[in-house]
Amino acid sequence: MTDRSDLEARLDGPDRIAPPDEFVQQANVTDPNIYHEFEQNWPEVWERAADLLDWDSEWDDVLVAEDAPFYEWFVGGELNASYNCVDRHVENGRKNQAALKWEGKLSETRTYTYQDLYREVNEFAAALRELGVEEGDIVTLYMPVVPELPIAMLACARIGAPHSVVFAGLSGKALGTRIERSASEFLVTCDGYYRRGNAFNLKSKADDALLKVDHDVTSVVVDRLGDALPHVVDGDSRDYHDLLAEHAGAVVEPVARDAEDLLFLMYTSGTTGEPKGVEHATGGYLAQVAWTAQSVLDLTPEDTYWCSADIGWITGHSYIVYGPLALGTTTMLYEGSPDYPDRDRIWEIVERNAVDVFYTAPTAIRAFMKWGAEYPERHDLSSLRLLGTVGEPINPRAWKWYYEHVGGGECPIVDTWWQTETGGMMVTTLPGVDDMKPGSAGPPLPGIDTEVVDAAGAPVEDDAAGYLSITRPWPGMVRTLHGDDERFIEEYWTHPDEAPTSDQSDGGWRYDAGDGAMIDEDGYVTVLGRIDDVLSVDGHRLGTMEVESSIVDVEGVAEAAVVVGAGAGGSDVFAYVSTESGRTGDQDLREQIVGNVERDVGEFAAPARIVFTTELPKTRSGKIMRRLLESIARGEPLGDTSALRNPEIVGELKEAARED
Ligand code: WT7
């Protein structure tokens, strides 16, 4: 452990922290020249990322921009993601190394070696084939974090069937919409899972979803709960473990997939209520996540690595499953929550498994900070070498707490900015190369180009706030929105004629990230947050529209606005609601609101607090002033309210928020 006074001096000094020497000496990437190399030899230099993979046939072109912004990467190449994440490690003499280490909700543990993973992925791939899944068919997966989820993902990849994972915390209704939209005819789900120790039925949510789907769906059910819940396998569904037994020892040849073939679909929230089906291609995606797992997370096959996200979101896809497994690392899967059974649960797992690299979200770090340093202090965290964060901006105070109390002042922190649509990390320091600046994510990665622009698309000056945009394509980028090329262009892209980028080498299209940001004189990007009506709840993206329309469906509700405020275990949804009668609501109305949101969106979006008000604060143009509501929810100073049409409401709102 670093000397305390020395550490404090370093943390209080200029806000620029050099990576600890001991880390740099062993890091995968240490040469600052890497930025220059990518600049000089772009896009061909991306072959480095592709070379981390085994290809069935070599690509002809690294990048084809003919049909921009429908860019294509490693065109003509063929590969299989499951082969790259499983078989090749078995063939390379590491079959007995742990691939997956699972920590269940009730402290159960399970370990799969690469050989175990190989066996079960093959058996399940054979089972999927028997059920009729063919190359190109979309398979929906609706499961909590259990080993069967990554196994099913890899089994799909093996036979060339794109998966569409739906977060288990989303409602049956949301699942149904996604199944319908993607015309998916196969569903793999689970009987249920534990919520704070109680058995919770997931299968019934899935059944609800299927009632509303017009086409036939074949389902497979994993028995997670054993005797805690009757395991119902009815009508069209099959039991996962029965299927494995039927296909015991089966070997399924991995299908050679075109680099541009769809690896998976991931639905995410946008500004409208319609979920967006983000498509990721096999070659570019896998190359970028493997390359960033190596250069940013610094992973090696020897590491035990833990990303505490849920596999049901992009972070889990890229940095629990595909990135780490492509590198042959041991990746942890955690089903539980950070404070069950106690608030030291995370640190207990780090210590017991001697975790080397830990990746989590700012919302979790803020909760750890609130609970106090005594919890990490109870445990020996000296196995940790590197820490990461993702999902929302991290404030310098939380950054420093993480650095000091979790990393002991000896682990670099990578603050990684990226999105469902980018597939992999985009803006972050390289931990073996760059100094860190708490609160700023860092420079764009080698090969990535960002620009902060004003509303007209013109670059702003250093340190001025504007819209974060990406001015060159990248391998892991979204290829399109499922079934909606037009919306893909509309949502994300600006044509070079409208706002030329400084780099025209590949057509000059500009990708609009939807975030506000600033770039400083060193090229470090500070991300300010979403500029559209999208919230981040515990690292999950949530459209305000989806929640608000569900709330106003409740009889008697006039208007609603939701924001994210500080909650007990991280971030919570706060709802501000006005009623038709002007009544400030009663218990019954509250319950209906929560019930509606759980039914329509999912339990994770259910408002933890509902504040009734006679009116919502609006600007003169009639827009709800969400920023103000956010400040009230967080107990922060309110800032400038002069743009309000109804400033008198502020006092009432503060009062109501206090009382609630
Ligand atoms: C949005 C994307 C990428 C996985 C998790 C969320 C915000 C993400 C950071 C960061 C500041 C961040 C942005 C982005 N975000 N990482 N390091 N600093 N903001 O994926 O659900 O697609 O959300 O998360 O607002 O646009 P997502």
From TrEMBL:
Question: Which organism does this record belong to?
Answer: Natronoarchaeum philippinense
Under Enzyme Commission nomenclature, its number is 6.2.1.1
Keyword annotations for this protein, in alphabetical order, are:
ATP-binding, Ligase, Nucleotide-binding
The entry sums up its family as follows: Belongs to the ATP-dependent AMP-binding enzyme family.
User: InterPro entries in the record, alphabetically?
Assistant: Ac_CoA_lig, ACAS_N, AMP-bd_C, AMP-bd_C_sf, AMP-binding_CS, AMP-dep_synth/lig_dom, ANL_N_sf
Q: Which residues belong to any copy of the AMP-binding enzyme C-terminal domain? A: 546-623
Compositional bias ranges of the Basic and acidic residues kind: 1-19
- The reply on keyword ATP-binding is yes
Protein name in the entry: Acetate--CoA ligase
Residues in domain Acetyl-coenzyme A synthetase N-terminal? 34-85
